[in-house]
Amino acid sequence: MSTIDHERRRRARQMAEARWAFRFHLPIYLIVNAALVIIWFFTGPSNFPWPVFPIFFWGIGVFAHYMAANHNPGGGWLDRETEKILKEEEGKS
Q: Hey, CA dihedral for 19, 20, 21, 22, is it positive or negative?
């Protein structure tokens, strides 16, 4: 297996692991935040709706986790740049 194939396989493995982790992160987010809303509701919903803060800020984290797990920003560029550098190195030798 060439170095490039090994690198692509390593990167694919990292993406698969990130997707696997996201599958646990999202349900935990939903369950915990549902519990927070229930606690807020039963302790007096006339109070300030404080669960909006963990829902919003943790939601940003969940969205970032989703993007990292399912999108490879710059991945195509990295592959092209790697190929370009390898061709330059071959030309020098």
A: positive
